[in-house]
Design goal:
2 domains, single chain, Phosphorylase Kinase, domain 1, Transferase(Phosphotransferase), domain 1, 15% strand, 257 residues, two-stranded antiparallel ribbon, transcription regulation, five-stranded antiparallel sheet, globular, alpha+beta, 7 helices
Length: 257
Amino acid sequence: MSADIVDKVKTYLGKDFPVTLISQGAEALVFETKKHPFDPELTNNGYIIKYRPHKRYRHPQIDKTLTKKRTVAECRCLVKLNSMKGINAPLLVASDPYNGYIWQTKVGEQLPNGEFSSLKNFLWMHNNDEDAYLQKVQEVLIKVGQQIGILHNNQYIHGDLTSSNVVLQRSAESGSWEAYLIDFGLSGYSTMIEDKGVDLYVLERAIMSTHSLYAEKYNEWIMQGYKDSFDSEDHLKQVLKRFEEVRQRGRKRSMLG
């Protein structure tokens, strides 16, 4: 199935448009390319192409409508984030919502151990007693919290906050790691405190499941950055209260199985 989809993407882009499949999820395939969709002379760190394939279990017309709607929604979210002060996110380059394609700039690079610089891989690289609590790890996690806080403070939610959907990239000026949020397929505008609490809970659980030995301190640092980024104390208190309620509901579900 995936081979057929990859062939379809290559046919759509053209034989002179080299792409490499880098991940495949339930909703979309993600490709990497060095080529700009319109100007072959434009190159940078590379580009990401996200493609939502046709779902055979859906009626063709319903599938087309859903694909267009979700692609447009993700593009609008990226445009909004690109104009939002303080948010680090990929830049939207181009889109074809009728066929389910989004082009965006690539963020991230190789870590010293050769792995891609997702937050998940970064923390795994420091997954030992000697490195886990280094100052640079603390600084990165505080920056992650700040990014989420700025997002929520502007009434946007991510919808799928995991350590794989946070990517690190070195600043050209300082050389320090900066945190970028990626994959906004489930993101959108929301004034609901519940949505923000769920965002925080999902990330907390992701950190606990993949980095359990150091998760308590890691989540503490993330929340430190999160709290620092709000400009309304009342808004922050509401979110933190709901986050605790969501956390308690999650614990009860775990106990009941």
